Amino acid sequence: MMRTFTGKHMAATLIGGFGIVIAVNFYMASLATGGFGGVVVENSYVASQKYNEWLEEARQQEATGWEASVSRRDDGLVEVTTMGTPEDISVSAIARRPLGKREVRDLTFAKGWNGDFVSQEPLDADRWTLRVKLEHGGQKRIVEASIP
Asked: Does the model's pTM come out above 0.70?
């Protein structure tokens, strides 16, 4: 014997279908907002007024000729290899997680036995974006690097 499809069945089907769609939308929206804080600059007008200054600063940094490569060792410490820099340069960095929970960490470096700079603090085995600052005698160079 076959049961008849009534209005109650149709209402339950519609409510269940739309309920699933709404639940998935809320879940996806929570993932989207949890992965990116949404702020690149605090005030876009002020940033636009400083744009030419930032370009000039970038030209000055390029003129130093300093370069750096960044890697993470097996023990979690970050190693910075510098090229074309003075002997007594100082190195520091800010590490940020590009996705997921927002975490920002300052890293300090000491010169290693082979001339490379090694961080004093290890980083977890996740993806990180580093902003490495090389400084010597009033000159500086910022190098952006990504560690998988």
From this structure: no
